[in-house]
Every structure is written in structure tokens, then in C-alpha cells.
Fold:
Amino acid sequence: MNQALIDLAVERGRLLERISNQRQLLGRELQPVGNALHGADRAVATVRKGSRYIKDHPEMVGVGVAVLIVVQPRRVWRWTKRGYFAWRTWRTLRKQMAEFGLLASRRP
Structure:
């Protein structure tokens, strides 16, 4: 075999070993990030599950709102105003983030 080909094969082997070591190091270094992202994924899944439940059972939301209105109408009104303000702020913020290209595309 040609010496140049042998040298290339040896160099390739060294590079593959180096790549393998770097992957292992990266895996160890990013473990805390992976754990944090796993927690965030669980939180997002819980919120989506709750949202799906509310969409599937709107009568439960209606009953809850009716009970709150009967028990504490003043407090309900105050929290309704706060919620509306938060919702409007969120929509405005999302709109501006989309204009600046900071908002990731939504998946269906």
C-alpha cells in the first residue's frame, strides 16, 4: 500500500478518536442543561394537558366561574381586569417579537 494512503488512514483514525472523545466530553458537560430542559419539557407538557382538558370540558370552567361570581364577585371582577390586561400585554409583546424576528415559528 502506498505510504500516503497509510498516513491518511492513520490520520483518519486519530481524527475519529478525537471526535469520539469530544462527543463524550460534550455529553458530560451538557448534562445539567439536559436536565433543565427535561424539567421545562415536563412543565410545557403539563400546561398543554391542562389546556386540552379545559378545551374538552368547557362546562367545568363555566361552573368554576359561576361559583367564583357567587362567592366573591368583587374579587372576580378585579382578577378579570388583571387577566385582560395581561392577555393584551402578551398579545402586543408577541406581535412585536414577531416583527423583530425573535419569535420561533409555531408548530401545529
